Structures are given as structure tokens and as C-alpha cells.
Amino acid sequence: MANIKSAKKRIRQTQVRTLRNKIRKTMVRSAVRRFEDALTRGDLETAKTALQFCYGRLDRAAQKGAIHDNTASRRKSRLSARLHKAQQSAS
Length: 91
Known about the structure:
The protein has 91 residues and is mainly alpha-helical. The protein is 87% helix and 0% strand. The relative contact order is 0.13.
């Protein structure tokens, strides 16, 4: 355990940041799950709306540093590709 006052503060700050990042990552996973559920049901309109919501969650998590910018971009690209593929097979 740390003895120096600044080290103790650092530990507290790290705990708070870790908790916030965990919440942000959970929100991303929930949004993606909502999108995937709509996609598996074949409800493309709901999936499209859920995808836009996913974009916001991913961008926010990347902006705040919970995930890397490239990770957010990659996930957005893959999700949009899945929606596009579902739309092509539906028509």
C-alpha cells in the first residue's frame, strides 16, 4: 500500500477512472447487443436506429479514452457492414 499522499490520490483517481471506463464499455456492449438482436430478428428499421445509437456510444467511449479511436472505427465499420449485408439479402 502506498504511503505517499500523492500516490494514495493516484490510487483513488485510478479507481474512479476504471469504474467510469467499465461503465462506458458496458454501455457500448449493450448498444451493440441491441443492434445484433434487431438484426437477428430481421427488423432492419430497428437495427438501423440501433446502429446510429451504437455509433454515438462508440464515439463517446473513444473520445473519453475508454477504447482506442481505431477500435471504435473498426467496430463501427464491421457493424455497418453487417447491416448492409442484411439489407442486401433482404432485398
